[in-house]
Structures are given as structure tokens and as C-alpha cells.
Amino acid sequence: MSKKITSLILALVLMFSMTTIACVSVSATVNEDGTYTPTDPDTETYRYYFYMPTWWYTNDDVTTAGIYWYAGTDACGALDGSGNSVSWPGYTAYADETYDQLFYCDVPTDVETIIWDNLINGETDSTAAIFWEAMQTINIFSTYYAADYSENYDQDFFDEVQAMLDTYSADELAEISPYYSNFYVDDSEWDEGLCFTFDNMIYIVDQNVTVESAVTEGKYTYGGDWYFYYGDGSYGLKLTKEEAMEAEENKAEDDTRTYYMTIAEAASADEAVEVTVPETSGSDGDDSTTATEATTADTDDDDDSTAATTSTDATSATTAADASSSTSDTASTTTTTTDNSAVQTGAAPYAVVFLVLLLAACGALYYTKRKAD
Fold it and tell me: What is the pTM of this model?
């Protein structure tokens, strides 16, 4: 009888072990180098590019960008305990092999908000230099744009695209620009009209578009906008490189939009941006705040151009929102975030469960054998 009980217990231990291993495997979306691969190979993704500004390389340890999302498929760990074990600053972005400072990540299409960072966990101590060396964007709405969601993409832009959609076939449009496939007509209850996703587009940081931390005075997160990436180290506000170059050359004097730019030109412009670290217990710098002449982004709810530049309450060193704050029902998304602390979650909850079960099983086995003896 004791042998049967012992065999049953061992079988249960094996079953629990296999279940736990399976659970851990499902949550293991991070590769050895920290990069992300969807857990389910059939997961639909959008590829997002990111140019990391030179001034985000705040110390010698910064070599790559990071990307974080708190809700959606394979979400990173959030403060409410949701998501997986990948805590702030999130996944390591893939580095483009052709252009320096260019990174990308294939993100599941149901992810509504992403944050790019310089892969530094700034922690919570504002007296430490690393707190100020950590750089990140605001919470970026990554679902779609409709007309006037951004000042860069007004109704005139969408009217031009609509005219092309009405004139040419899908095959003809694909030859003109692959980005025409990003456009679709919203038939939801919101009836947004013509919209486009950000698949294969690039996010460019604007040091003049910032949100100051509500917790730490002088600590900023940075906004910017999505641009069409042409695959050759250049990007712009038009669906083709030729159109973007023409628009840049012929734009009006009072038009402040950048219709065309190369990564090399952006890197050169970055040389004029200075970021200094305030005097802290871990820094020998002078007593200064951030050295960028940043203006706090306008967060007036009456402003229609909010999607790329005015996501509010983004925190300073790190940002992690409650997963329930995702707002797919609103176009100009204002995402509620937490304080400016690093996201710290349990790294292996399934391992803890497995350990408890294993100990219980071993205890039962020991008791059974003692009783049998």
C-alpha cells in the first residue's frame, strides 16, 4: 500500500513540475540578450523603429535602447502585478546593423502604449546620478492616427492620401509606397474615418516636447512623433521619400514641420543638445537641472493635436502604468501612470508556486514512508 501511495505522490510531483515548466515557458518572452520574441509565433506584430538621440547616451554603459509596454500581449511587469517578469526598463530593442542609434522591435498589434528608453533603471533616489541619467519617452499612443491627432498629420494630409486611394488600385499603390497598406477606414462606433497604423514607422524624440515629472521637479520625459521610415536612414512626413524631400524644400517660411530628415542629420543636430546631471551624491557635476531648454507640453484637453506630443503624467526616471489604464476607447489617449519609481515585479512567481508544491509533496512522501516503516 505504501508503495502505491509513494508512486502516486511522485506522479503528482512530476505533474506539477511539468505544469510549472510549461507556465514558465509561456511567460519566457525574453531572449538571452534581452530582446523580445512573441511567445506565440502566430502573434501579429507591428515593427516600430526608434532613433535614440545622442544625448540619451548618458554614461558609458548605455549602448542600446529599451522598449516597455504595460498592457497587451507579452506585456512587461506592471506595478499592479500584471504582465510577465520583465520589469522596467523592459525589453532590449534590436539594433539596426546598418545605421548607428537606430533600433527596432516587433510589437504585438494589441499593444496600445509603448515607452522607449535608454535601458537604464533610474530607481527612485533622485540624489543618485543614475536617476538623472535614465532617459525615456512619454507614454506613446501606438495604435493609430486619425486626422489631427498630431499637428504633423492634419486633415489636408489625409485628404491627399484619400485621393490616392480613390485613384489607384491596391497593387498600384503598393508600388508607389508600402505605407498605403497602413491606412484603413475606421468603422467602429467612434467613426474616426481614414486612419493609419505605425507599422514600419519610426519614432523621433523632440527635446522641446517634454512632460515634467509630477514627483521630481526638473526631471523630464520626452515626446516626439511618428515618421515614415524609408529604410535607407531617412524619414519624413510623406509616404514616399521623394514627396518628403519636395515638401521640405518647398515648405512655407512659417511651417515648422520637418518633412524630411536623415539619421545622420539628426545625429549632427544632437551635438547642440546638452544634458547635464544635477549635483548629487553620485555626481561631480554642477548644481544644475536638465540642460535642455525644454518646454512643458501643452496638455489642454481642448487641444485636438494630442496623440504624439501631450501624453500626460509620464514619470521621470521610469514609467509603468496600471494595466487597467489603457484607454483604447479614446483617440487622444491620456494614460494614467504611477510615480517615478522603477517597476519592480516578482521575477519568478511560478517558481515560487512550484517550490511550495514540491516541498509539500516531499513532506507527504516523508510522512508516508515513516508511517509505513
Answer: 0.73
DSSP 137-187: B-PEE-S-EETTSBTTB-HHHHHHHHHHHHHS-HHHHHHH-GGGGGEEEE-
SS3 state of residue 12:
helix
Q: What is the Cα–Cα distance from 94 to 97, expressed in whole angstroms?
A: 9
At 107, give phi and psi (nearest 5°): -105, 135
pLDDT value at position 22?
40
**Amino acid (one-letter) located at 75:** A
DSSP 8-state symbol, 322: -
Residue with cell 507599422: 199
Query: Are 224 and 206 in contact, with CB atoms under 8 Å apart?
Result: yes
**Residue 101: CA count within 13 A, CB half-sphere:** 20
Written as nine digits, the cell of 253 is 517660411
Span 281-336, pLDDT tens digits: 444 433 333 333 333 333 333 333 333 333 333 333 333 433 333 333 333 333 33
The DSSP-derived string for 33-84 is TS-B--SSTT--EEEEEEEPPGGG--STT--S-EEE-SSSTTPPP-TTS-S-
Cα–Cα distance for residue pair 96/214, rounded to 1 Å: 35
Could you give the count of Cα atoms lying within 13 Å of 4 in the half-sphere of its Cβ?
A: 1
Per-residue confidence band for 373, with pLDDT thresholds at 50, 70 and 90: low
Q: Tell me the C-alpha distance between 102 and 65, whole Å.
A: 9
Cell (9 digits) for 294: 525644454
User: Three-state SS for 104?
Assistant: strand
Sequence-separated (6 or more) residues with CB below 8 Å from residue 37: 29, 31
Closest-CA residue to 106 (of 148, 46, 53, 60)? 46
Residue 209 neighbours by CB under 8 Å, 6+ apart? 222, 223, 224, 294, 295, 297, 309
β-bridge pairing 295-296 and 201-212: parallel
Q: Give the closest residue to 77 by CA, choosing from 360, 347, 284.
A: 347
